[in-house]
Design brief:
Blueprint lengths: L2 E4 L2 E4 L3 H5 L3 H4 L2 H6 L8 E5 L5 H9 L4 E5 L3 H9 L5 E4 L6 H4 L4 E7 L10 H11 E12 L5 H15 L13 H10 L3 E14 L3 H17 L4 H14 L12 E11 L2
Parallel strand pairs: 3-4, 3-6, 4-5, 6-7
Antiparallel strand pairs: 1-2, 7-9, 8-9
Helix pairs in contact: 8-11, 10-11
Length: about 270
């Protein structure tokens, strides 16, 4: 597994088909996300980091007279998203850090699910301001991503595996798991209002068995560490994750994981 360069830095080189085959744990919670996504049939919508496009197509079906633009920097994920797209969808290959120059606004809704924890904290203010710039007045920003102490068991496990291979110079998880209070301040500072909205974190115990937790780790998590591992260490890292995965097994025999989601709905005044 390699890396994909963008003008916003380096991204994991995900395999779109493998990634799409391991998103069921996200899709299980889509109902809550969609219930608070203010959509009308004619809305123009931006999906910030559309990934493999399974949720994007669901949103497009909810705006049959509108249009959904999927923004995604990773070519393999974009190819997967295009393969399942509805007629009222289009796509742009670009990172979130330059969304305002990559897409043509205005949009009624900008949303992002399970993406922004991959973005360095220093880039979040610019991204939120660009979201505001491409929204029409009164438009909605809906974000869900990892927050708080998200997947703390996995972070500890992968940190330890990385140290066993790379020693003191081993990478640690690069994800940005922000807390609700800090993100509320940021959202308000970037010109949004949360009147009739919210900024909070939600803790979930997501169900996994041995096969599904390995599928998730290999398709979406180990890549976070491979960015900073030497090329010759990556195969060993993956093998060790597979060999030691039973360390994630709970006393009840499951491999269920603790997910914490930063969840927000804000509006451009």
């Amino acid at each position: 597994m390699g890396q994909h360069p963008t003008d916003a830095g380096w991204l994991p080189d995900w395999d779109g088909q493998v990634y799409a085959a391991n998103t069921a744990h996200h899709r299980r919670y889509d109902g809550r996300f969609l219930a608070s996504l203010p959509l009308a049939p004619s809305h123009r919508v931006l999906d910030l980091g559309c990934g493999a496009g399974d949720l994007t197509a669901t949103i497009a079906a909810s705006v049959p007279e509108g249009h959904v633009v999927g923004l995604e920097p990773q070519p393999s994920l974009l190819a997967e998203a295009r393969s399942r797209a509805l007629p009222n969808q289009s796509f742009v290959e670009a990172p979130a850090q330059r969304l305002a120059t990559a897409v043509d606004g205005p949009f009624d809704v900008v949303y992002s699910q399970s993406v922004l924890h991959w973005v360095p904290w220093a880039d979040h203010p610019s991204i939120l301001r660009q979201c505001r710039d491409v929204l029409r007045p009164g438009g909605a920003l809906r974000i869900e991503c990892g927050g708080g102490d998200n997947v703390r068991e996995v972070v500890q496990f992968l940190d330890d595996v990385a140290r066993s291979i790379a020693g003191p110079s081993a990478p640690s998880a690069p994800w940005t798991f922000a807390h609700a209070g800090a993100y509320l301040d940021l959202v308000l500072d970037c010109g949004f209002t949360v009147d009739n909205g919210f900024v909070h974190t939600v803790a979930q115990r997501r169900p996994f068995d041995r096969q599904s937790v390995l599928g998730w780790l290999m398709s979406q998590a180990v890549q976070a560490y491979e960015i900073d591992l030497a090329l010759e260490q990556r195969a060993t890292f993956r093998a060790e994750v597979a060999n030691r995965v039973d360390e994630l097994r709970r006393a009840d025999g499951s491999y269920d994981l603790g997910f914490v989601r930063l969840d927000l709905l804000a509006f451009r005044p």
